[in-house]
Amino acid sequence: MQYAAAPAAPHPREQPHPRERGRPRDGAIDAAVLAATLDQLAANGYEGLSLVAVARAAGTTRQAIYRRWPGKAALAVAAVASLPEAADLERTGDHRADLHAELAAFHRGVLRPGGVSMVGAMLQDGADPELRRVYRERIVAPRRRRIRAVVEAAVVDGSLPAGTDVELVVAGCTGSFYALALAGAPPGPDWPERMAAHVFG
Amino acid sequence: MQYAAAPAAPHPREQPHPRERGRPRDGAIDAAVLAATLDQLAANGYEGLSLVAVARAAGTTRQAIYRRWPGKAALAVAAVASLPEAADLERTGDHRADLHAELAAFHRGVLRPGGVSMVGAMLQDGADPELRRVYRERIVAPRRRRIRAVVEAAVVDGSLPAGTDVELVVAGCTGSFYALALAGAPPGPDWPERMAAHVFG
Amino acid sequence: MQYAAAPAAPHPREQPHPRERGRPRDGAIDAAVLAATLDQLAANGYEGLSLVAVARAAGTTRQAIYRRWPGKAALAVAAVASLPEAADLERTGDHRADLHAELAAFHRGVLRPGGVSMVGAMLQDGADPELRRVYRERIVAPRRRRIRAVVEAAVVDGSLPAGTDVELVVAGCTGSFYALALAGAPPGPDWPERMAAHVFG
Amino acid sequence: MQYAAAPAAPHPREQPHPRERGRPRDGAIDAAVLAATLDQLAANGYEGLSLVAVARAAGTTRQAIYRRWPGKAALAVAAVASLPEAADLERTGDHRADLHAELAAFHRGVLRPGGVSMVGAMLQDGADPELRRVYRERIVAPRRRRIRAVVEAAVVDGSLPAGTDVELVVAGCTGSFYALALAGAPPGPDWPERMAAHVFG
DNA sequence: TATTAATCGAGACGGTACGTCCGGTCTTCCA
DNA sequence: TGGAAGACCGGACGTACCGTCTCGATTAATA
After folding, report:
1. pLDDT tens digits along B174-188
2. Which of A124, A130, A131, A195 best tests the B interface by mutation, with the highest count of B CBs <10 A?
3. Does B73 score more than 60 pLDDT?
């Protein structure tokens, strides 16, 4: 179990009767299923995600999954949505140090088991559109927003030239990691520092 | 196990005897299957790629496919790899124009049906190692080599500063595309030009 | 591994938990599949028995068949074994009439569709040992036991000489049928009577 | 290789031009294929007879088989027809000794590797009718004829009663072996003697 | 001696069946 | 009512076989 589900996430399928009748859902099953889903998703991609394997790994049955989510795609969405969102970092005003800190956080995140695989899964057409949307909203967008803030601040105070194509700088930061991973040469632990030096050389 | 479908080796699986023994493969089947695979890939993505549908669309049988490629994944790689790889481009000496041309070729390639999906598949841990190796050798490495040549030439003649981190520049070129695709904002047709301008601003 | 389809155990595979858990098997499928199998067996013989055709004729799927029997051979055995086994017959004390009745029952059984083919399959070295064991236990042994009882009773009361080789008499009863079938001259409907007369001439 | 093909058997498929042109057939292939076919037939039955396995065991290819026989059924027929026919035995006039000798010959034959399996294969509906016909003519009928001759001679000279059902006596001789084999209790080496004693007790 | 024609090894091809796995739905018992 | 177990349909996957076909290389009788 590599990931912890976000604790505040509401129950995926709203109960028809808000007044809960009968036996209540076992919350431990939600967590175990989501964690197992993330593992499977990272290890085998969306296509290789097997509900029977998830149920087995979570110590429950397929039916318990279908009671909570309408299908495979929704389960994957929920699993990704349960990933903890990185907290905002302190800004020091030293842009290079700020970017270094952001990229170090990104690096730690993407190097978690299955992190790169998850990126790969999200790039595939087969993935459910809703799944990709949630992943972007919860994982990709916040990270981009934070990196962009650092870069824009640098442009404002003249650390970067005025005409800088901010979008490409931001995309190049995380993108260089993907490109190197795809080339079979994932960058080493000094990558965040090198990247920050490259941008603010 | 060899999956390559290089244009110089018309039959996907290298024959152990260079002198071909037995009835030769029907090249029309190779072409029809690859074309049908690309269609299916574009229409339904990798997950929706069905060998029986491919065989039917190609007017042949599943067995003829399995004779050529060991399975669905290899077929998909072969289909993408079978598309005409951009020949080595003329160098004009104008580094910015050269990089623009290279990135335009990359852009065309990655926007082909299933191109991004293929990148995603190759980033996943579950992918067959041999498959990833072939993909890197046939697709990723040549492209990186060509882009690197342009960047290094620019460093040599002073168009880029001496201490430039060439690897990060190269990785940032294609990587920015991946990052934008992952963010749900795949760059538009002016991306090669913007990227070249960004590097050689 | 249990193939038996005894009337007292309606589900072919014994459930590990005597208290049945989960959704129970649909008995109508068992019946429909066995009936379709017998039809196919009679029409095309064992070799021409196709599980997909059986499933289609039974209005179900191959998977439902594989849930019940491990394969084609076991299905064929179950089909033949599923037909009503002659109950123990009343002994009249008239040994000749008793033997006649037993052999008539055997005759009816072995003339059922696929009956002789099944005997042939069970004589072959390639047959699954477990399969042969079940066939012997459920089909062959009871019949032999009943015929032997008649013959032994005849020896006891002097209708047959004291030194009679009972085993050979019993084996000769059913065996003569096999020998004639092998010779391409399967005996006619008077065979049970002739055989009884031959033994108790 | 358990069996030797009959040496005098003519080439299975007549050559269209009696004047042999081109490369002549390799007679060794005929023999090797027939022997391998008999082995496979005995080991796996007619259904389990695989031409690719036969070709491999015979050190040749499927095509060489199809050049000689039109298909699987014809190959099996030819293989069975190649079995050496047992020579007629000397009659001593001692009926019991004569029957003993005949049954001993039958016993030796049926105990050869795959002998019982071959009987089983011939009892199955799936076997080609022509195949069964040839087997009967070449193997079963001569044996029956010889045993019948002994029994009829015994009836003629009064060793057996006048009204004896000769057909059932003959069928019971070999049939008892089949019945015991089917019951999982194949008779031991004294069976020919016991059987002769049983008939002429 | 050169030609001709058939065989041999090898393997592709269409078609069909087998046995396994998964997704999504359902039906039963038990807590 | 939820949970565990498992049956159900539909469909895809990968393997094996049959009978036909098309290659290159070989081998002998003929021209």
Report:
1. 999 999 999 999 999
2. A124
3. yes
* C29, C60 Cβ separation under 8 angstroms: yes
Task: Calculate how close chain B gets to A43, using CA atoms only, in Å.
Answer: 6
Using one digit for the tens of pLDDT, what is the confidence trace for D121-161? 888 877 778 878 888 998 899 999 999 999 999 999 999 99
Pair A121, A46: CB distance under 8 Å: yes
Position B14 pLDDT exceeds 60: no
- Who's near A152: CB < 8 A, 6+ residues apart? A166
Strand E lies under 7 A from the Cβ of residue A48: no
Q: How far apart are CA A200 and CA A96, in angstroms?
A: 6
Contact A141, B183 (CB under 8 A): yes
The encoded tokens of residue A151 equal: 């870069």
Given 3-state DSSP classes, what are the helix, strand and coil percentages for chain B, each rounded to the nearest 5?
Answer: 60, 0, 40
Nearest-CA distance B173 → chain A (Å) = 7
Tokens of A179: 């490109």
Task: Return d(Cα C44, Cα D83) in angstroms, integer.
Answer: 28
Q: What is the pLDDT of residue A47?
A: 76
Q: Which long-range contacts (CB under 8 A, 24 or more apart) does A31-35 make?
A: A31/A4, A31/A5, A32/A1, A32/A58, A32/A59, A32/A60, A33/A58, A33/A60, A33/A64, A33/A65, A33/A68, A33/A75, A34/A3, A34/A5, A34/A78, A34/A79, A34/A82, A35/A1, A35/A2, A35/A3, A35/A4, A35/A5
Measured CA to CA, the distance from residue C63 to residue C57 in angstroms comes to: 14
Q: What is d(CA A149, CA A164) in angstroms, rounded to the nearest whole number?
A: 14
Amino acid symbol at C107: H
CA D44 to chain centre: 16
Distance between CA A186 and CA A178 in Å, rounded?
8
Calculate mean pLDDT across residues B61-89: 86
Q: Phi/psi class of residue B93: alpha, beta or left (left: φ > 0; alpha: ψ in -120 to 50)?
A: left
Cα–Cα distance measured from residue B158 to residue C101, given in angstroms and rounded to the nearest whole number: 109
Kindly report the average pLDDT of chain B as a whole number: 86
Distance CA B82, CA B41 (A): 14
Please give, rounded to a whole number of angstroms, the shortest distance from the CA of D99 to a CA of chain C. 15
Cβ pair A198:B114 closer than 8 A: no
Give the dihedral of Cα atoms C160, C163, C168, C174; nearest 10 deg.
Answer: 10
Q: How many Å from the CA of D22 to C1' of E2?
A: 15
Higher pLDDT among residues A122 and A199, named by residue: A199
- Whole-angstrom distance, CA of residue C167 vs CA of residue C38: 32
Cα–Cα dist C161/D8, whole Å? 50
Question: Residues A69-119: pLDDT tens digits?
Answer: 988 888 988 888 888 776 778 889 899 999 999 999 999 988 877 788 888
Residue C63 beta carbon within 7 A of nucleic strand E: yes
Q: What are the tokens at C98?
A: 């008793």
Q: What is the torsion angle, in degrees rounded to the nearest 10, for the CA atoms of residue D53, residue D58, residue D61 and residue D67?
A: -110
Count CB neighbours of D32 within 10 A: 20
Read off the pLDDT band of C11 (50, 70, 90).
Answer: very low
Instruction: Provide, in whole angstroms, the distance separating residue C158's CA from nucleotide E12's C1'.
Output: 73
Ordered structural domains, chain D, with CATH: 12-81 (1.10.10.60), 95-200 (1.10.357.10)
For Cα atoms C38, C40, C46, give the angle at the middle one, nearest 5 degrees.
90
Q: From the CB coordinates, do chains D and C have 3 or more pairs under 8 Å?
A: yes
C71 secondary structure, DSSP code:
S
Contacts of D14 (CB under 8 A, 6+ apart): none
Answer yes or no: are the C-beta atoms of C10 and C27 closer than 8 Å: yes
